[in-house]
Please model this.
Amino acid sequence: MKAYSAWSVFRHALTGNRHWPRAWRDPEPKAGYDVVIVGGGGHGLATAYYLASVHGIRKVAVLEKSYIGSGNTGRNTTIVRSNYEQNANARFYEFSLKLWEDLSLELNYNTMFSQRGVLDVAQSEGMVERYIRRGNAMRLNGIDAEFLSPAEVRSMLPGIYEDSACRYPIHGGLYQPRAGNARHDAVAWGFARAADSLGVDIIQGCEVTGFLQEGERIAGVRTNRGDIRAGRTGLAVAGSTGHVAGLAGLRLPIESHVLQAFVTEPVKPVIDTVLTFELADFYISQSDRGSLVFGGELDRYSSYAQRGNLPIVHDVLEAAVTMFPMLGRVRMLRHWGGVCDMTPDGSPIIGASPIEGLYLNCGWCYGGFKATPGSGWMFAHTLATGAPHAVNAPFALDRFERGYTINENGAGPFFNLH
Amino acid sequence: MSAQPCRLAHGGRIDRAQALRFSFDGRAYTGYAGDTLASALLANGVSLLARSFKYHRPRGIHSAGAEEPNALVTIGRGARREPNTRATAVELVEGLEAYSQNAWPSLGFDLGAVNNLVSPFFSAGFYYKTFMWPGARGWRFYERFIRRAAGMGAVADGADPDRYERIEEFCDLLVVGSGPAGTAAALTAARSGARVLLVDENAVHGGAIARGTAGADDALAAWHAAALGELRETPEVTVLERCSAFGYYDGNVVGLVEHCAGHRPDRPEGIARQRHWIVRAQQVVLATGAIERPLLFGNNDLPGIMLANAGVCYLREYAVCAGRELLVYTNNDSAYAAALAHAAFARVAVVDTRQEIAPELVRACAQANVSLHTGSAVATAVGSRRLKAVRLVGGEALPCDLLLTSAGWNPTIALHSQAGGRPVYDGERQCFLPGSAREAWIAAGACSGAFDTGSCLAEGRDAAQKALARLGVTPADIELPDCAPAFALRPGPQPAPQGKCFVDLQTDATTDDIELAVREGYASAELLKRYTALGMGTEQGKTSNVNALALLAARRKEPVPAVGVTSFRPPYTPVTMAAIAGRKQGARILPTRQTPLLGWHEEQGALLGDAGLWKRALAYPERGETRQQAAIREARHVRSAVGVCDVSTLGKLDIQGPDACALLERACVNRWSSLALGKARYGVMLQDDGFVFDDGTTSRIGAAHYFMTTTTDRAEQVLRHLEFLLQVLWPALRVHVCDATEQWAGIAVAGPRSRELLLRLFPDTVPGLPFMGVADAEHAGLPVRILRVSFSGELGYELYVPSSGGEALLRALCSAGDEFDVRPYGLDAMDILRIEKGHLTGSELDGNRTLADAGLARLAREDEGFIGAALSRRPGLLDPGRPRFVGLEPLDPAQSIRAGAHLVAAASPREPDESLGHVSSACFSPALGRHIGLGFLAGGDERQGSVVHVADPLAGTHVAARVVSPCFVDPAGERLRA
Amino acid sequence: MIRLRCPHCGLRDHSEFTFLGDATVSRPGTEAAGDLARGGAWSDYLYLRRNPRGVQEEFWHHGRGCRAWLVVTRNTETHEVLDTRLARDRGDRA
Model:
């Protein structure tokens, strides 16, 4: 892999940028691989990269039915954080956050991970109690967390509503300074380029249509480009998990739901931190281009359509102009939907499936982006060794039947309430 | 104030009698009523309006409509400042202030233009390859400068002072676009008696007819005027102008935004600035027209280069001739109208990429003195801040100060695509046509590929007839005007562009960027878009997407459909956020629920707070008391005398029917068959997963009649849950559940003197009422249900009375006798009292607690017949390591702990550390004279009496506390049974 | 806006309703607990979903209307609603 650097940008500019090499190859699928990853999003590509870089397993293919990063990787609101209360979540997402901190250098690709902080604004006394509980849990797990006073919150957020203009005054906020956001497409591209350079075949336009069964075991996949054998097969297909697992005859604790996201026309910097307002189910940040990027709740009905409906559009824009009244005249540029693989406890599944040879990486709900490197690392470990790492062991599929659910918000066994 | 050098003396739709003053970057100009900001600036000879996003290159006006990529300006000041506004879509009003953006120190001299000189370093995606060192902190440093440079216009200074509103609408047929096709469709439907809504995004209806691009056809214009007049007169028809259909959603619901007031010179009070329509249409005719796309060549972004139809529009509609030496550069017949229209006002030449031109066009050019260069192409435009000349591919230079270009037309299929299948590429017309319909729409006119007026009219009529037939309405027929046969759109070759050529004018994406992206492997339509930002601008690639796909296809040597099509997402054009939010913002963002006693609380000087949607009394501070002091006084008063508290927010369910007891036994863990008439019982429900769902008191008030109270938070969920059980799981059960939350006011009366107090009002009922007894009484002619239950741990009652009588009963209680000194107590005092008693609330029952966790295991029946029984026996729920409900007393009574702190073993603070549980509730206990807390602690039952440490790293405190029973006050329950 | 034809109330916006999920799951009887140490049939009922990309029968509750529980047949890819009926008409499910 030819290194990217300021020097290489300069040098190539002098020759009219005519000699940049391909970022990754466009190989034909081979007959078989040690590991086949289904799904060329961030998680699948990261898994392939860590299989090759950490475990030395280079006969790896990533199969993507469309183009890489075409699913939720390129549709989310790019928030990276580890501000969780449950130990299993806190440890896993913190592991991932630590990988993020070195990711651009490791991949030699600028993922633009910007630690601008994530601030959860508390708008009731009940929220204050819960945020303190969560912040303390973070601190005991070695994660940075601060609880800010209302005045501190206001000083970070010029332009936020006055208490008199909203029924819900600001009571404080839980702040994680090391959290932030990143450039979503760059994560997929960076992992793809780095994995490719280690010999991983990234095969776009390759849709899995079935599985190769060998007795009780899954020995590869059927695709629109022919059968591909695999020592182990890993699924990392997010919103399509229910569909693809169904091809293997599996029923999973997953229901696909649509989550909408929104951007405005670019404006000069107004919001420097990533913010969440739980009361209104609203979160917002500003991209480097200047667009405000925000979202709200799920549409709440199960869906495989990458688009949502007006009720959530209304809720979200009401929240936006309520929290930041000066945004009233700013225009919404675009809104779209991503298909989220919701689990009934709101936490992901990383580990073995009930079928030998088939491994699952799914159930990311709407929080999968921040998990990208951590998920890839843990899934690679599980695929390489056949057993989970201590950090992803709690996310086993059998936690549901064994009663060890990881329910961050206590919302009960409902797919669309997490 | 200057003259308008480019304004023609006659013609146009503007009103020369109404001169309007306006300013751009502080300089004063004059335009006319009927102008847009763009046409007025052009009339004044202003060609430089903006700087481009990345390279800060000079930019002018490129179009005359919603597709404008260049001329983005900021309108207004202060709280009304509106950034990134298309000058082509702003109607001129007296006093309008417009400002350029993205330029410093000035539009004319912009330091950012240095980017243009070093543009090779800013190739597509260059930022992915650099700014990495030394890791995340390094990027944070570089990013600051990038953010400051990005962003175009600035947001307003404060809350938008204007008003916006939403309106719900239903119609038989929605017609989007009032050009020839849309007008014909609407007229057909109107004559058929249908309820019709006709909308157009422009200020003037008529589409190509109004813009003059349908040709100078008086008969057509007259037909359109008559049709529009008839539509406006038809009662069941609504005609809206300045109304953009921005999104097509499920259920044939279309979102519109109508501009109502911004353009009105009288600035009317009380009229919303914009109105968001939510239209539920049975059928939709999409007659959205088409948008011209430009031919590409070097320096194609210079001010003075426009789309051909825009030139015609400015000439015909606004009487502006934006140049003296005009070059029309085209590969198709449609642009000849621009050449011929300008011939009377400017010297005109045409460069056509085709060798063969239709003889009638050649003849018309000759007659109009238009010089014609066929089989030729523009290599590059020449000029610094404005177009001066072009150089043809052969090297020949042609002087010109206005270039009008056309590479053909892109049907406007954004709405079709939002509610349909993938667009289909038409090789002959070189454009994408609508795919299959997922919703009930029919495309008509140019958006379906019909580029001549006669076909558009006929398609509009036919589409409406088809839509009406689907609704079972007999469609009327209408007469259509004869139109002169128009050109057939078969664009000719599009020469490969040379030099610095902008495919997307707004994002500054060039042909070189496409070349680089493909070379690096970002070679599908979506990857290209994401890598180069092509089509990501505020006009969403309206003029650029098809050109980009054609270039991509050519580079990959594949047909256009093979490289893909980018998807269209709503909104079609950007919409003002405040318009979508409407009135539901600020204090109105969520509804407010008021108890029937709210007026009384206010009269008592209560401190009110929001608990969910409810307004509740938190405390009643007296003379200089703090909130906490008031709560402590109130709690003390309840323990020593008697207090009253508004508990109307509790969920109240009336449950009746022969199988009511069976329902309760299935829904709750408790036994209900043993509950005697006139008795109440504390009940707990689990969810199917075995975790506690809700708790409350249920009383038996008839043989088959129960009254259940739920927690305030879960009232709605419990009702829905019981309805699920009755309608889905066990419809055979003969039970009705009715929500009576709003119907009953609830008043808690608590304290050692509560019985004496109630005796005054209910002398017949109260004496015989045992603990957990329930009886019906009457007060002031209204029924009162009296429950002897206690949340505070004191002798206590809950009184339920029809809401209308709540305040009267409360006043009666307060004035029943001075000797009782009845005082109100608020939510804060109630919380203190229940913490002292160890009663549970949502702070404890947070959705992750089993019965055993919460110390409630004794309540559960042995059998498996209740919801949650089965799965509560999973190992995870029986795990002995689960935190158990405990009480906590700091060893030092003066030390406080707070909810949210964690419990650890270590005596001194350290991070990281293993959490053994947490504090769920805490307060200063007036009864004990010390701070206490409730919480959950791993092995809590075994740790009774031992010491744990309350770690609160956020607060920087670490407090030793003894683990005690959660019931701090009267553990034997003598006071409440007194 | 998905629009559901409530048998009581007619065609209404989906925002009047609350979605619950797959209506084809079969609830075990109280006796059919299975291997409770591993959740058994109850766990399958509560957690496992067909989650089809296509037509699904699902529960919706008309909470801002007549409060009826409905079984809606809907396509999860196109959101087309094929059928709406009252859940109680299906009889006891447990």
Notes: The first strand of chain A starts at residue 32 and ends at 38. The CA atoms of residues 242 and 252 of chain A lie 7 Å apart.
